[in-house]
Specification:
Layout lengths: L1 E4 L5 H13 L3 E6 L4 E6 L8 H4 L4 E5 L19 E3 L2 E3 L6 E4 L6 H14 L3 E3 L17 H14 L3 E4 L6 H7 L2 E4 L7 H8 L5 E4 L6 H13 L5 E5 L17 H8 L4 E3 L1 H5 L2 H14 L4 E4 L17 H24 L1
Parallel strand pairs: 7-8, 7-14, 8-9, 9-10, 10-11, 11-12, 12-13
Antiparallel strand pairs: 1-3, 1-4, 2-3, 5-6
Helix pairs in contact: 3-4, 3-11, 6-7, 10-11
The structure holds phosphoenolpyruvate and manganese (II) ion (MN).
Length: 340
Amino acid sequence: MLIVMKKGATDESVQGVVNAAEKRGYTARPIPGGDRVSIGILYNKGSVDAGHFMGLEGVKEVIPVTKPYKLVSREFQNENTVVKVGNVMFGDGSIPVIAGPCAIESEEQAITIAKAVQKAGAAMFRGGAFKPRTSPYDFQGLGKQGLEILAKVREKTGMPVATEVMDIENFDLVEEYADVIQIGTRNMQNFSLLKRAGKSKKPVILKRGMSAMLQEWLMAAEYIMEEGNSQVILCERGIRTFVRHSRNTLDLSVVPAVKKESHLPIILDPSHAAGVRDQVTPLTCASVAVGADGLMVEVHHKPDEAMSDGAQSLYPAQFEKLMKMVNSIHAITGACCENN
Ligand code: PEP
Ligand code: MN
């Protein structure tokens, strides 16, 4: 942190800031400049609260230098983290696709969709057993039965499975069945849930809160890592904006921003951003081009009958086409993004 003093600040006020910093256990070093003095706060272990210094006499501005997050940051670890889920890798330059329905509705539904997406080239299956629904009157998921169906999908196809955990109460149960545990947009700042995920041995997909800034999202990941789980995959799923033409706005620019700040892999979920089927393919293509480390796409064999998110679910034939586009675009842009 750098504390910039006002022009003409007295030696006493500079000393006052130094004393205030040292009282809090920091090392403060005045750096004389051309027409003003700055004071560097050095060797602090965590982030320093700017509020401690803002109101002190002679202080013009306080510029944070050290990032508030540590474990997730590139400053801490320069090389990319590769998260391994079964034999699927996120962050190694490949583009694994997680596909499946929004919710597990029945064994027949799950197996039918799983076989179709696997045939098209998906690496992993997804499906919610516990569903976070806006309305309490909507389908809430099959719960444990849904998890058991996911286990059957894994057994029959060999694909690892991703599913959401909504609360601490069901964490142990979801953890037992999932190969990767998803924390949804609505829970991105559920700190006790994040801490519990941090104690898990399973990798975690951390979706971005629908109104979260990059720093808040990375701080949420920091909660998980701080508890000891370094296997975190970030997932951009669209943020709430003023537009009406899509359910959310897929924030493509967050991908290079994340890669600059963090070593964690980032995947994109164009389905929940779009909310409508016809936007999913173009947004998926853009996600690959911008450097995604993976994708999450909702697919349903009978979207008109889906219990949730049917309008944004691709038909298997559309997904098959999409996979060809994903691979073609990745063949061109994958190497470029890697070199950036
Ligand atoms: C989902 O993946 O089905 C889901 C509910 O996602 P989100 O948390 O992004 O809304
Ligand atoms: Mn969904």
